[in-house]
């Protein structure tokens, strides 16, 4: 798939290092799907959709910093929508998000709500100033917030909010956030892993299932095409939460 040209219509700042980019094109994505964003002359990087025509980006390195220099009217290249996306199941669902990982969940929750599903959310952030999409989630249903420093909501990591919830009440659980946070939740809630859909990150190059960069040990799942949404019971048997491969294929820690 060749990139198509796209004009950025608007840029909104949500938190000190997080911005939403409104795209001129609605690519008709499903929540959990992603798009490869080509910042010309710099890099092409994967981003989840935070809405039908938006991506929400945390500035972490060269490509995302270059994207933050672009404003309304600038052009980028897009390949997508790509990947499998979340599947909505049941009547009562729980969303568990961390940081910018809340972006695809806000999109998912809005679709679930339109279908008449009951939506509860547990969201973890570092601090009050890092909270994003609070009003979007609160418009959907009960919302529990945690912050690492206790400046808003329950003090602690997202897992600290689990004590407020009875996970048996939910037909399906959806999770997205930093790998350490997702692993913390998934490994504490193993008995619910067969009804937990996790949107995960690996290092994407081709995003077409050809290069093998994103493969998950031990079964070689290609996260770019067979994911990025993978059932948690499969993740428990994989490298997830233990290590991940970088651009040169070597194993590294599960940060971010
Ligand atoms: C399916 C998927 C969905 C994502 N959705 C979002 C999102 O909605 N919002 C958001 O802010 N970020 C998202 N990311 C992460 C985003 O792709 C990285 O933050 C971005 O690529 C960093 O590039 P950089 O040059 O700014 O930083 P770098 O300094 O190059 O890297 C910083 C971190 O990003 C990772 N990274 C760099 N390039 C890639 C790549 N090609 N593929 C995967 N990881 C990479 C690195 O491994 C490192 O951990 C997503 C990643 C994946 C795989
Ligand atoms: S990024 Fe190339 S196979 Fe997944």
Q: Can you describe what's shown?
A:
The protein is α/β, with parallel strands linked by helices. The protein has 2 domains: 4-82, Elongation Factor Tu (Ef-tu), domain 3; 92-252, 3-Layer(aba) Sandwich (Rossmann fold). Helices cover 17% and strands 34% of the residues. β13 (215-216) and β14 (221-222) form a beta hairpin. The longest helix has 13 residues, at 102-114. Bound molecules: flavin-adenine dinucleotide and FE2/S2 (inorganic) cluster. Residues 204-207, 209-214, 222, 224 line the site of FE2/S2 (inorganic) cluster (FES).
Topology:
Blueprint: E1 4-15, E2 18-23, E3 34-39, E4 43-51, E5 54-58, H1 62-68, E6 75-82, E7 92-98, H2 102-114, E8 118-125, H3 134-138, E9 143-147, E10 154-155, E11 172-176, H4 179-188, E12 196-199, E13 215-216, E14 221-222, H5 223-226, E15 229-231, H6 232-235, E16 244-245, E17 251-252
Parallel strand pairs: 7-8, 7-11, 8-9, 9-10, 11-12
Antiparallel strand pairs: 1-2, 1-6, 2-5, 3-4, 3-6, 4-5, 12-15, 13-14, 16-17
The protein binds flavin-adenine dinucleotide and FE2/S2 (inorganic) cluster.
Residues 34, 43, 45-48, 55-58, 60-64, 100, 103, 201-204, 228, 246, 256 line the site of flavin-adenine dinucleotide.
């Amino acid at each position: 798939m060749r990139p198509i040209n796209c004009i950025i219509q608007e840029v909104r700042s949500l938190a000190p290092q997080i911005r939403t980019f409104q795209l001129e094109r609605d690519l008709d994505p499903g929540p959990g799907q992603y798009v490869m964003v080509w910042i010309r002359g710099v890099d092409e990087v994967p981003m989840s959709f935070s809405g039908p025509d938006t991506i929400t980006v945390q500035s972490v390195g060269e490509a995302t910093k270059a994207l933050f220099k672009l404003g309304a009217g600038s052009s980028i290249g897009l390949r997508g929508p790509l990947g499998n996306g979340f599947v909505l199941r049941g009547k009562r669902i729980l969303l568990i998000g961390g940081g910018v990982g809340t972006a695809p969940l806000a999109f998912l929750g809005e679709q679930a709500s339109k279908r008449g599903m009951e939506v509860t959310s547990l969201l973890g952030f570092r601090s009050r100033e890092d909270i994003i999409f609070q009003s979007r989630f609160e418009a959907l249903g009960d919302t529990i917030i945690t912050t690492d420093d206790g400046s808003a909501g329950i003090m602690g990591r997202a897992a600290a909010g689990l004590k407020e919830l009875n996970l048996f009440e939910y037909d399906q659980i959806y999770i997205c956030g930093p790998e350490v946070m997702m692993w913390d939740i998934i490994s504490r809630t193993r008995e619910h892993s067969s009804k937990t859909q996790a949107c995960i990150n690996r290092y994407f190059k081709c995003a077409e299932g050809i290069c093998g960069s994103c493969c998950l040990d031990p079964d070689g799942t290609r996260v770019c095409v067979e994911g990025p949404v993978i059932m948690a019971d499969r993740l428990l048997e994989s490298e997830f939460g233990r290590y991940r491969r970088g651009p040169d294929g070597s194993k590294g820690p599960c940060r971010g």
